[in-house]
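User: Hi! I have a protein structure encoded as tokens and I'd like to know what sequence might fold into it. I'm fairly new to this, so please keep things simple.
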């Protein structure tokens, strides 16, 4: 039986998650020396990121058949030690925002994770970001390595988003059943080392250093327009190739309206975000702020 505690950072997307994972990478020897295990994916170029945790998508239903493999994955990374897990895809993927769906498989994914870990989940930490910022940033991220339609064609989908942060927080609380659930607004995230100290309050932070490497730097509008022209022309670029395009246009920072909500739409998102933060702050079983 896995009786070691799990400390779970579930992102969210576009909230500095890659920087947090780089923090775990650069401090991995300190963590291992202190008796901790840590697992995180390598999708954003984190050198020691080896986590490949398969969780269900919207079309997979409850997908309880995924539990045994997920359990083996978690056990292998935990290695019988207190375990820090960082994976922003636990709630789901960003691509569904473009369909007006806010993490549609979150319930099933959380259910598989909870069933796969038979020990205590000591702490779940979620960083939340204003909706308008998150949706436009997610669209821009997908545009780096995929052809995407124009942002204007997706605007009605975004504006009709089916649910938001309170629904996800309820899922994390009620399905994962952690001993503690913390929700941190992006504006109060602090450094990656600060976030690690929040996630694992008993961790000796005296030797933990902030990561020196920058990861997942946002592409400029000029870079994204250049990439989209090539994708829509039928080209398929490798990661080094599209990264080179981003680097080539890094200094052209003039905004071109590649992915931006109107002032009225931003006011809508701000009001909704503020109201949802108030809802979360009043929830039972949630540490907020």
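Assistant: Happy to help. Inverse folding works backwards from shape to sequence: for each of the 289 positions I chose a residue that suits the local structure. Here it is:
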């Amino acid at each position: 039986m896995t009786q070691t505690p799990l400390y779970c950072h579930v992102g969210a997307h576009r909230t500095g998650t890659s920087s947090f994972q780089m923090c775990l990478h650069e401090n991995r020897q300190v963590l291992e020396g202190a008796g901790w295990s840590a697992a995180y994916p390598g999708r954003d170029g984190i050198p020691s990121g080896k986590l490949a945790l398969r969780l269900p998508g919207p079309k997979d239903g409850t997908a309880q058949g995924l539990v045994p493999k997920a359990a083996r994955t978690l056990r292998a990374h935990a290695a019988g030690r207190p375990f820090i897990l960082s994976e922003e895809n636990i709630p789901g993927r960003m691509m569904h925002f473009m369909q007006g769906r806010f993490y549609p498989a979150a319930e099933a994914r959380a259910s598989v994770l909870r069933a796969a870990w038979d020990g205590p989940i000591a702490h779940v930490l979620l960083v939340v970001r204003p909706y308008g910022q998150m949706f436009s940033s997610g669209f821009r991220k997908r545009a780096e390595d995929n052809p995407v339609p124009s942002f204007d064609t997706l605007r009605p989908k975004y504006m009709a988003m089916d649910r938001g942060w309170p629904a996800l927080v309820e899922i994390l609380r009620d399905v994962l059943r952690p001993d503690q659930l913390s929700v941190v607004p992006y504006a109060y995230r602090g450094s990656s080392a600060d976030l690690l100290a929040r996630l694992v309050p008993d961790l000796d932070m005296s030797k933990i250093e902030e990561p020196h490497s920058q990861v997942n730097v946002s592409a400029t509008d000029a870079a994204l327009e250049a990439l989209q022209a090539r994708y829509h022309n039928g080209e398929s670029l490798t990661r080094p190739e599209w990264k080179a395009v981003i680097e080539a246009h890094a200094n052209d920072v003039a905004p071109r309206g590649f992915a931006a909500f109107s002032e009225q739409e931003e006011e809508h998102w701000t009001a909704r975000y503020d109201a949802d933060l108030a809802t979360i702050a009043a929830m039972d079983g949630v540490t907020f702020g």
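A useful reference point when you look it over: Residues 263-281 form the longest helix (19 residues). Feel free to ask if any position seems puzzling.
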